[in-house]
Amino acid sequence: MPVHFSEWVLYFFTTLLLPAAIAYLCGCFNGAVIVSKYILRDDVRDHGSGNAGLTNFHRTFGGGLTFVVILTDVLKAVAAVLIVSAMLGWTDFAKYWAGLFCLLGHMFPCMFHFRGGKGILSGGTIAIMIDWRVALVVWGGFLILAVLTRYVSLGSCWAGASFPFATWFVYHQVVLLVLAILIGGLILYKHRENIKRLLAGNESKFSLHKKKEGSQ
What are phi and psi of 47, to 5 degrees? Predict the structure, then answer.
């Protein structure tokens, strides 16, 4: 029997658009913005780099609420991958599809005027859920560079750049590679100012201590 146009639209909506929308909305629950704006009543995006991410939150506020930010950004990535995988079947494509739109939600959250974070913590969680070998490359390089240089942004750039290569090494699937390039490209795009500062030699180094008021 011929397939009607309406059936194709329904198929496209249920297999791609609806799961993408759910993953995006999961990503919109930005931990740094929620904690700073609604608990501390002081939006993290008004401080430091203006980024709604873990590093800027820790530098600005410090304290135990940093753990709440971590937990929020990890759990939303887990939820996005699990929900989309349950909808599309437990396939590698479902994980990458969920990961892409979860990161879009984290970086450009509609509920927070599209000003979000840079996607490293959520992206790292997604890498773990995709495959331990991909996660080993992404996290291994990130940790080595961040610890040795104390430039979190340098480790983050490694994570974005290495993600497509790790994906191709593990899967050898063009569709997954394209999704991985989009994910890695988004992370590098969000770190474009960090890259400029790294090249100029004036990027801030990470410290376990809360940044003092008035310090640069």
Answer: -130, 160
